[in-house]
Task: inverse folding
């Protein structure tokens, strides 16, 4: 299998998508921030820096929109939807973050969904680090994607 971001000489390059058809594409990614039950309660009740979940949701949306600025070979895309769900989970304990990103374009939005989750998780950590520095960000992965030449994908 050849990797698309390298040419025949092994040089990194941006993939040429100019000949690809514009299609509807969607990607869903997830991750979680593991923390103590006390820190989770703080996140749900409002930490000293404010609404943890609301700020993390906005950070995730902003992260998705700025993906091409952060990942060197990503194409800037006209994103048509970014939605983040942040769910407190006492069984972790922690916060589960899921991002859904959509576009109509010539390349997919997997990186945008993964960046949205990563940015939201990092923001949760930043806002709660005064209470617990040992939090862990785990399980960031692509759950599903649809559209494009490679077809649909669903994590097992």
Result:
């Amino acid at each position: 299998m050849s990797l698309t971001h390298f040419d025949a000489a092994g040089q990194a390059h941006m993939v040429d998508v100019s000949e690809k058809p514009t299609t509807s594409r969607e990607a869903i990614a997830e991750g979680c921030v593991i923390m103590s039950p006390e820190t989770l309660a703080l996140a749900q009740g409002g930490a000293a820096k404010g609404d943890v979940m609301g700020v993390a949701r906005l950070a995730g949306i902003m992260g998705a929109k700025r993906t091409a600025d952060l990942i060197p070979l990503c194409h800037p895309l006209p994103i048509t939807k970014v939605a983040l769900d942040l769910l407190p989970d006492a069984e972790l304990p922690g916060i589960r973050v899921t991002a859904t990103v959509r576009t109509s374009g010539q390349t997919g939005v997997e990186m945008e969904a993964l960046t949205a989750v990563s940015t939201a998780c990092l923001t949760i950590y930043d806002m709660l680090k005064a209470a617990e520095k040992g939090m862990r960000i785990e399980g960031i992965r692509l759950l599903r994607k649809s559209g494009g030449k490679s077809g649909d994908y669903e994590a097992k």
User: Anything to note?
Assistant: The beta strands are 23-34, 79-89, 94-105, 136-146, 153-154. Helices lie at 37-45, 52-65, 67-70, 110-128.
